[in-house]
Amino acid sequence: MRDVRLGLIGDKIARSRSPDLHRLAGQLCGLNVTYDRLIPPERGQSFDQVFDHCRDTGYRGVNVTYPYKETVVRRLGTLPPALQQLGACNTVVFGEGLPTGANTDSTGFARGFRTRFPGAQPGIVAMAGTGGVGKAIAFALASLGASELRLCDPDSDKAQGLAQALKPLSDTMRIVIAPDMQSASEGADGLVNATPLGMDGVGGNAVPTSALAGRHWAFDAVYTPEETAFLIEARASGLAIMSGFELFLFQGIDAFAIFTGEQIDAEALRAELARAADTAELSQAS
Q: Among its keywords, does the record have ATP-binding (predicted)?
């Protein structure tokens, strides 16, 4: 059985299920996968020090999450056009020469949306957050045929930067910068939270309850917890829901394929993750 050493670099990842996903994906295809959580502040190291440690000590690759998805781009070799456009990376492979990167958040969101809402179009979408995951979702929404994307971020430079990056797609998807999610949501079909608000250890809600009425669907990139305040309120208001677990699942499957060359059946891995979660809950209760 071939050994594959992987890891995740990020700050608030103590409850991340990425180790389970990759370990179980390995079991499904006969690989022995180890997957480490690598938290720079807890290690007393910078992002670059952790990255260099992984590069130099036998890791096949790493996933990169908040707040390092944009930081990591400068550590990569030649960037493929899609990654140049996004300016954010969540999957890095080490080998000969400079590390290579990909963004499976974008492909993962698109696969999750098509799975959760088969045959549906995103329509007009209001999105809170224009950082690394927001960028990936924005490009995915364009690929899915969204007619308009309204960007909302307290950092106006970030919002302007994403709007500029999306400019080549403006013939098919209108781009608007909105002052807040309340105004952005007016007449929208979908609502997206691409901020860390709602995450374990962060809390909060980027989308006011008053913005939910009349909308059709909602997605929260946060998956720990899977049931965020935003999604609970959206479901209560009658919206169709796509949880962050769908993005987590499909971006993980795409990343695993990049790391190993192996294609994993999504529903088989979903079932294994559910069993692992049930086992963990029983263990905690005993």
A: no
Rounded to 10 deg, the angle between the 132-144 and 156-165 helix axes is 40
Provide the residue type at 155 as one letter.
Answer: D
At 94-116, the pLDDT tens digits run 999 999 999 999 999 999 999 99
d(CA 41, CA 253): 28
Report the mean per-residue pLDDT for the chain.
94
User: Is 66 annotated in the active site?
Assistant: no
Q: Which of 35, 59, 66, 68 is catalytic?
A: 68
Q: Return the axis-axis angle of helices 104-116 and 244-260, rounded to nearest 10°.
A: 130
Query: What are the helix (H) ranges across 76-228?
Result: 81-86, 104-116, 132-144, 156-165, 181-185
> Quick one: CA dihedral 110, 113, 116, 118, positive or negative?
negative
Domains of the chain (ranges; CATH) run 2-102+252-266 (3.40.50.10860), 106-245 (3.40.50.720)
Token code pair at residue 112? 């999750």
pLDDT tens-digit readout, 62-78:
999 989 999 999 999 99
